[in-house]
Amino acid sequence: MAGSVHLERDGPIAVLVIDNPPVNAGSHAVRKGLLSAIATVEADETCTGAVLIGAGRSFISGSDLREFDLPLDPPQMPQVIAAIEGASKPFVAALHGAALGGGYELALGCDARIAAQGTVIGLPETALGIIPGAGGTQKLPRLVGRPEAIRLIAGAVRVPAEPALALGMIDALAGGDLRAEAVALALSLAGEKRRVIDRPVPEAEGLEEAVAKASHRARPHVLAAIAHVRAAGNGPVADGLAAERATFQHLRTAPEARALRHIFFAEREAARGNPDRRAKPLPIDRLGVIGSGTMGAGIATAILLSGRPVCLVDADAAALDRGIARIDEALAGAVRRGKLTVETAATARARLQAGTDLAALSPCDLVIEAVFEDAGVKQALFSRLDTVLRRDAVLATNTSYLDIDAMAQAISHPERVIGLHFFSPAHVMKLLEIVRATASSDAAMATGFVVAKLLGKQPVEAGNGFGFIGNRIYAAYRSACEFMLEDGALPHEVDAALEDFGFAMGPFKVADLSGLDIAWNMRRAQAATRDPRDRYVTIPDQLCEAGRFGRKTGAGYYRYEGGNPLPDPQVETLILAASDAKTITRQALLPQDIVLRAMAAIVNEAALVVADGIALCPGDIDVALVNGYGFPRWRGGPVHWALEQDGPALAQACADFAAMAGPGRRKGDLGHLRTNGRVTR
Question: How far apart are the first and last CA of the chain?
Fold first, then answer.
């Protein structure tokens, strides 16, 4: 039976085995099975205690999120936990794999907790727009103190077993046979109950600092979690549990939680790629990177951090030295932030092989080129690599915009060519677009997904088209924002409106950060093929012609003092002159108008991306924009947002953007965004 609980015996100890593959989600069937098994244990006079353990690869990885859009059928998790706490016999939670959310709350209801090596433990509910709802905010503070509980819960922190033991989140770490050691722990309790809920909340310093840090720019559900943790122990336990549950029930059906559940499932689906792909990935023990600039060095760093060796090649020895220095600084930064120890950083650095000869790449199973974004340069490199690499080695390009089919024509086995589009900084950013060219084999594509998993990236499959998914949509968004400069807005007004909407950074701050000259070079390369009837904004070109390339030159759309962006009267003068040159009568734009125009451009292009087969499904667009472009996760992505809006009004805004942009911009059919399932190619 799906979601079953098996009751076994190990001497006087009952062993309740939770068996709900693949990750033992805490479904209704699991809760019902647990409640029945607990009653059986309590009624059995020959049983002196019990162990809860998961079958397969996890204890309980969390609740079954598919139930959250519906009324939760009883028994709910608090009822199961209350049965454990109310039992006369001690219960031990034997944790392995993942014990997260409701799974860890179930463990907190037990009298002791023991975990296998490699277990990940925590209460990450705030990442899904909710709070722990089965006692987590009231019990975790009793084990670790309020400041630490706030850090863990508000930050949705997943804690490995060894640090969890040090914090007091678990009582023991298994050295070998988890089940046997859990049974021994249950026997050692000798019938004694040690309920977490009976413990006082320990006094700890730093509460106000923890609250202030966790509250900074926090969403309402995070603030609610902080409030419940802060209240733990200040009144009757039953009142604290009831208040927590009421907040949980209110939040789980709220729009923000629905959006976060959507992106959770969309990310999981995106990581699977094309469902019809059956080919096995190729082995990738040895990886190579060509080009030691910002992207190449970042990709090499990501590989080193994954525990794999990498061969970094650059024909320019001086550039190679600069690239190695970037890698060293990235590793040193990880040490400063506590992500690595000095020893692990040194071990990672020792895995780097660097040189100027392409022949060093000959043993590699997969090579990623990250050289200058020029079609001729990349095609010439591919032609040379055709004589260097093994015929079964996968060759990936990190291009952002260029035609991968054209590159693949330069080698004799184009089926081994794919795109692996990283985002800067490559060792930090989660998104990885895996691009399928016309000839790309299923095995090569499957290998790309293995690389994403190895590097800890969120993969999204994309078809070979200008800008793929993310950059194509972002280009439309940037155009809409540039139109608004001519029509009546200033850079800081556009940025403020979109940051208030939830973007991590407004488009003009982003442009200054990445460097205005990068997009300028691309625009100049496309000038000969641009339709003169399309609306073209010259403001960014004029900024570049004035030497204003952004942060790196101290001036772009903003001027910079001490690293802070400040509105610049010179830019305002330039913008007003640009409007006058086109005889545009400027009109002030309200923040809601700015948001609608920007989102209409994104949504319109998203519909076209689906219609053109560049994205496998609409959800992949949400994954790409959230993980690579600063779109607010709590809004679920632009497609999810669009489907929550007034359809006719949004469709009209999309049509207005397409008409404003000129004949080269098509109007998207928003019906494509309602497509269910994944397109196969």
Answer: 36
Other residues' Cβ atoms within 10 Å of the Cβ of residue 543:
25
Rounded Cα distance between 440 and 445, Å, is 7
pLDDT in tens, 563-602: 899 999 999 999 999 999 999 999 999 999 999 999 999 9
In order, the DSSP letters of 224-275 are: HHHHHHHHTTSS-HHHHHHHHHHHHHHHHTSHHHHHHHHHHHHHHHHTT--T
Nearest alpha carbon to residue 639 among 659, 654, 628, 625: 625
Pick the catalytic residue: 125, 256, 433, 605? Answer: 125
Cis peptide before 75 (omega within 30 of 0): yes
pLDDT digits (tens, 9 = 90+) for 346-370: 999 999 999 999 999 999 999 999 9
Q: Is 125 a catalytic residue?
A: yes
Catalytic residue among 8, 45, 85, 105: 105
267 among known catalytic residues: no
Amino acid identity at 281? P
CA distance to 102, 213, 245, 306, 583, per residue, from 155 (Å) = 17, 10, 20, 23, 51
- Number of H helices and number of E strands within the chain? 27, 19
Q: Which letter, b or e, does each residue of 552-568 get, where b requires 16 or more Cβ atoms within 10 Å of its Cβ?
A: ebebbbbbbeeeebeeb
Ranges 250-264, 443-457, 523-537, 572-586: which has the least confidence: 523-537
Torsion angles phi and psi, residue 451, rounded to 5: -60, -45
pLDDT of amino acid 3: 59
Q: Name the band, by pLDDT with cuts 50, 70 and 90, for residue 681.
A: very low
